[in-house]
Amino acid sequence: MTTSRPFKRILKALGLGAYFTFALGPVIWIAMMSLKNPNDVIASPPKFVFTPTLENYKIITVGRHAQGVETVRPDYPRYFLNTLIIASATVVVSLLLGTFAAYSLARFSFRFKEDIAFTFLSFRFAPELMIILPLYVVFQKTGLIDSYSGLTAAYQLITLPFLIWVLRGFFEDIPREIEQAARVDGYTWWGVFHRISLPLIKPGIAAVVILSFIFAWNNFIFSMILGGERTQTITLGILGFIGYERVLWGQMAAATMICVIPELILAFLVQNYIIRGLTFGAIKG
Amino acid sequence: MANIVFQNVRKCYGDYEAIHDLSLEIRDREFFVILGESGAGKTTTLKMIAGVEPVTSGAILLNSRPIQNLTPEERDCAMVFETYALYPHLSVYENIAFPLRAPRRRIPDDQINQTVLQVARVLGIDPFLDRRPAALSGGQRQRVALGRALVRQPAVFLMDEPLSHLDARLRNEMRTEIKAMRESFGTTIVYVTHDYSEALALGDRIAILHRGRIEQVGTASQIFRRPMNRMVAESLGDPPMNFLKGTIALAQNQSVFATGNWRIPLPENPRLRESVGKEVCLGLRPQHIRLERNHPDTPFSLPSKLFVQELLGDHAIASVAVGDRLFMALCQADQAYSLDEPLYLAWAPEHMYLFLEDTGETLLAEGN
Amino acid sequence: MTDQVSRAKHPNPPQRSLPYLLTFPAMIALIGILYPFVLGVYYTFTNYTLTEPGDIQWVGLANYVEIFKAIDFWKAFGVTFVFAASAVMIELALGLGVALLLKDAFPGVRILRSFLIIPMMIPPIVSALMWKVILLPTNQGVLNHILGLVGIRPIAWLGDSATALVSLILIDVWIYSPFAVLIFLAGLQSIPKEPYEAAQVDGASDWFMFRKLTLPLLTPCIVLVTLFRLIDSLKVFDIIYATTKGGPAGATTTLHIQSYFEAIRWFRMGRGMVYLFVLWFLCFIFSKALSRLWTKVLIR
Amino acid sequence: MAEIILDNLSKRYGKGHGPFAVKNLSLSIRDKEFMVFLGPSGCGKTSTLRMIAGLEEINEGNLSFDDKQVNDLPPQARDIAMAFENYALYPTLAVKNNIEFPLKIRRWPQSRIDEKVEWVARAVQITDILHRRPFELSGGQQQRVSLARAIVREPQAFLFDEPLSHLDMKQRQVMRTLIKRLHSQLQKTMVYVTHDQKEAMALADRIAVMHRAELQQVGTPEEILNDPANAFVAGFIGEPAMNFLDVEVRMEAGGTAWIAYAGYRLADLPGTLNPSCHQVLFAPLQAGIRPHRIEFSETRRRATDLAAEIVTYESLGERGVLTARLQSQDLTILTPPDQTFRKDGPVWVHFPMEHMYFFSKETGKRFHLYSLDRRPTL
Question: Does B181 reach chain D within 8 Å, measured CB to CB?
């Protein structure tokens, strides 16, 4: 589609400008909010020019000391830590369970192979509460409610299907003849797996690990119902700032920034794998 | 020491039968070539020897020991793949050393190093031992693949169309090199190709494989001079053999080849006598056909019209229309014919081939 | 240096059982997930309530009959489909439009493409809260303020049942339209260039090329976007829970939200699971049909 | 419009300021002529074709059809048809719609379109696959459809971008004959790009050999073969390729000149040395001779015969290829198919003077060493 004519070029610039304002505007607005002092935050009409302050960040991380408000230790860093533990544990468990399954789904043909693969995919498309509510009852009986191990097991529903399908795609991208050559060169299937197949998809594994971590980090519904006071995650923590009687917008904005910035950095590292991950390997983009 | 015997080997992918009842013997230290169109099943046959493709039924014997149930690493075969199949994440040195580092071989490092350097020197790839395969040209990658197979000095050397991705000049060079290096291999070589000139140049014996069936096995001249059927005759020679449909008839008690209203005398031989009346087709190689402007005084000729002429350097190819068929004849480069000019094909009787139309079986071949 | 084939014939695992051995760990997780699923389906046939977990009785299809007769069910059903259909439509159109704008290289296109991933990588619950601030009803909300500059009176957005669902669709579009853009971009890049050159040489106009070449070649992408977006928006939960929690007056209560109320707020686990099973069944049917369509379209 | 004139045409990579893809190419393609651009990959032949088609921007010089300058004319307005290397069929349309596509755009009446498509389908023998989809077809069939689509509009000129490079040997032979026949039937200008010198020799009225973005030589296939302008053209044409020997020209007291190869007296120049070539004396020179021109025998017949050691011999059905080493260089010699050689004895080779070409070692430029050395007989 030739865009040589200047009229088309202006139209294109306008379109892109509008869309990216829509896409980036809210994030920038919340970032600005996180730097506003309490009365600027609720100013009406909203203030675009203001003197920035790190007050909000200080309150939710180290707690307030002066102006007579009791210095209670803020919970937000604990939520951050909880999420870090649960997300990392989930990804490690998924890797251990899923990598071998992905390789065998990619390389070997055996009965029920496609059924197993499709069942995993269908979990991605199932409403989460369908599994969570019965799990809630099971966890009640077995005392797994509000425990790291309980949540790590439940989170597998988010990360395991994703990891198996995407890694399977990466294993399938390795030309069969390279693995056959290694077998002919005198290596058992295990030798081929850990000397040739795994090293060849190292970038893919890194991308899957990071994306699984982000999906686990972003989840809300699992920890809301299966978690509790001890294992509260960051998403629930941010929601906590919206109290019924008063809303701490500034602090909520700061909490949002602290939650989102590390994620975005990780996401930029693997940006060319994101579309491949989100479509479960359907698009090799 | 390695002779390979196929006993009624069959290979099916689901219900598609890729290889039908293959029985074949490859002698020790022989350069055995399997020639066939793409999809004839030649790569599958090679991979069944190597063990990366399982055999559906039948047996493969290496020095009369059955190996069809062994895993690839337990068979003493090395293979050069058509796509080279080099390990992209390893350097050239590591690619060649890889087979020697296999745990089952327990070869000390210094010995590995010495062998690899020696093979690299022979193949002329020692200047870039630390490079990755991606940084090499097609020819260099091909040599690394050869090196990786050579370094193990296996009992059997399998080569799957190793030259097909090289440009014409490099292909000739590598072919001469492989032929010259053959003595130093000192092993049985099974070479697969679709290029008939490679087969004729390299093979001690050649097997023509067509849709999973061996059509003929023999030396280069046997295959070229005495093809068993039309399929074999057609697969050798560039430009390929010409064919003209017709029947065997009797004229004054002598068997003749009849097509349209032309009658061409045939030599006396009982086989032709019995197949009088049968549908057959006449085969003539382009280099055996002479083009004459005026009617040649020999019964072995046919009228035709020039369809198109192509100059190819030291010779030219004239395509002439004989009835509805196109015949190709080699002629001198400087002989120019004009479009649709009437010409006569003439040939020596001993260069005639005759095949049964239905089975393609050879009735008459060169010289008999 | 001959090749010493090791004499000891070590019994390597026969080839057939290896695949099962490898997938076994994942199978444990599979069972770990299937068990609660089956348990949930069992609950739909009981009067199980969280307050008295003791006396579970089998009530057969009573829950189903009751719910299918309830007006709330069909309202939630309607809200779910209106939300899903409109979100998918807008995201398809917007995705294709923006992808076409980003297709040709120009200075800065790479940065813009990487910005696309920001909305998707932020937790949906957080994005919803962000929009909640922007969509504040009075002039305090940024959007109302900007609209005010062009003379539009402030809108109650999430607070008014007329505009609540539209606001939620807006949030969903904000989060997931980049997903459609990236898929269409990947699709546009994988289309071969030669047919366009041939069409140019044959004298085709831009519109002719778009209708006859680009659109048909993008059908796999359209099916894929629909597959993922339709099902995700059918089971939307986070962004509604963070903002309107189904309000005002049930205007934004979807099946998923209703099941949450039934099971957690009113402890009626049996009825809650029925809502969930119906929603699961819808998602299952759509996902099966769309993924089969995807493989069929891909081959063509 | 049928005559295509390229006047000092240049194209650079990277939006006009990178290295030259095509460097001031001047050439006029006559009406109804079959012009082939031949050269190794990356020599600029495809960029030249795409400039003629209007698919690539022209950085310098101008291109005109008959006498109208067309540099900035879009492809649509140039009334040329093109067959692409990877066929460029419309994957979403059936074969019949692919072929009628250019006619539909020109809004021809459907009756005339159907009749034209019928004729073209018969001409390229694809009447049986008109309703199939491109991805169901073999390489050869897709190529025929691409040809049909180009022919159906009766354009002023046809452009071919390596159309046969993805076909197997048999199909390539058939398609080559078909294209040659179409040219003689349609009597339209055709510009054909290939790296396969066999195709060029078989199809071309004239060949333009290109190398590293520059035109090396333009001439009929016979001129290119027998009167090469430089070492590149001589080495590129002919299969198997021409042998090159490092030689020097020596002059004896009596004025007769002779060719020395590694200290041996290879051959004497008939007649005297061309006055213009005096600077060639003692300068490093390359002598070229084609494999089918080297004479060989088991015994030594002439004083100038040299002994070459046999490296390998391959009999290839219609001909044999002998590789023999002479001092440090390997020679390729063509022999009759069933030639036999004594296993260990040398083979005596003779280089007939009238089939020798001489080139400068640095520039590769051809030298006509003696008066007769214009166009050696075949």
Answer: no
- What crossing angle do the helices spanning C71-103 and C164-190 adopt, rounded to 10°? 40
Q: Which domain holds residue B271?
A: 242-364
Domains by residue range for chain D, with CATH: 4-228 (3.40.50.300), 240-367 (2.40.50.140)
Instruction: Find out if CATH 1.10.3720.10 is the number for domain C70-299.
Output: yes
CB of D291 closer than 8 Å to CB of D253: no
Distance CA A258, CA A262 (A): 7
Is B21 inside any structural domain? Answer: yes
**Residue C82 tokens, joined:** 């209106």
Which positions of chain C have pLDDT values less than 70?
Answer: 1-15, 300
Q: What is the DSSP string of C216-265?
A: HHHHHHHHHHHHHHHHHHHT--HHHHHTTTT-TTTTT--HHHHHHIIIII
Neighbours of A141 (CB within 10 A): 9
Whether residue B76 and residue C3 make contact (CB cut-off 8 A), yes or no, is yes
Q: Is D91 on the interface with C (CB under 8 A)?
A: yes
Round to whole Å and give the CA distance between A220 and A242: 15
Give the CATH number for residue B319.
Answer: 2.40.50.140
Nearest to A186 among B47, B89, B102 (CB): B102
Name D250's Cβ contacts closer than 8 Å, sequence gap at least 6. Answer: D257, D258, D259, D260, D281, D282
Q: Which residues contact D268 (CB under 8 A, 6 or more apart)?
A: D256, D257, D258, D259, D304, D353
CA distance B99 to chain C (A): 10
Per-residue pLDDT of chain D (378 residues), as tens digits, is 579 999 999 998 877 678 888 999 999 999 999 999 999 888 889 999 999 999 988 999 999 998 889 998 888 888 889 998 888 888 888 999 999 988 888 888 999 999 999 988 988 888 888 999 888 888 888 988 998 988 888 888 999 999 888 887 778 888 888 888 888 888 899 999 999 888 898 889 999 999 999 999 999 988 898 889 999 999 888 878 899 998 888 877 766 778 888 878 887 777 667 766 677 766 788 899 989 889 988 888 887 788 888 888 887 777 888 888 888 888 999 888 778 877 777 888 988 888 889 898 888 888 887 765 554 433
The residue ranges of every structural domain in chain C are 70-299
The whole-angstrom distance between B107's CA and the closest CA on chain D is: 36
Cα(C37)–Cα(C58) distance, integer angstroms: 18
Q: Of the candidates A127, A108, A78, which has an alpha carbon nearest to the alpha carbon of residue A232?
A: A78
Q: Touching check for B104 and chain A: CB below 8 Å?
A: yes
Kindly indicate whether the ipTM for this predicted assembly is greater than 0.90, answering yes or no: no
The tens digit of pLDDT for each residue in B233-268 reads 888 877 888 999 888 888 888 888 888 888 888 888
Domain covering A76-278 assigned CATH 2.60.120.200 in the classification: no
In a domain, B270, yes or no: yes
What is the bridge-based pairing of β-strands D347-350 and D264-268? unpaired
Interface of C with B (CB under 8 A): 1-6, 12, 15
Domain ranges of chain A: 6-61, 76-278
CA distances from C68 to B97, C40, C75, C77, C91 (A): 70, 18, 11, 10, 31
Q: Are residues B183 and B246 in the same domain?
A: no
Q: Which of residues 241-260 of D touch B (CB under 8 A)?
A: 241
CB of C140 within 8 A of CB of A44? yes
Please state the pTM of the whole predicted model: 0.84
Beta-carbon separation of A184 and B102 below 8 A: no
At residue B67, the 3 state secondary structure works out as coil
Contact B105 C2 (CB under 8 A): no
* pLDDT the model gives residue A65: 61
Count of other CB atoms within 10 angstroms of residue A147 = 17
* Residue in C with minimal Cα distance to D50: C197
The pairing of beta strand B254-259 with beta strand B262-265: antiparallel
Please give the tally of structural domains in chain B.
Answer: 2
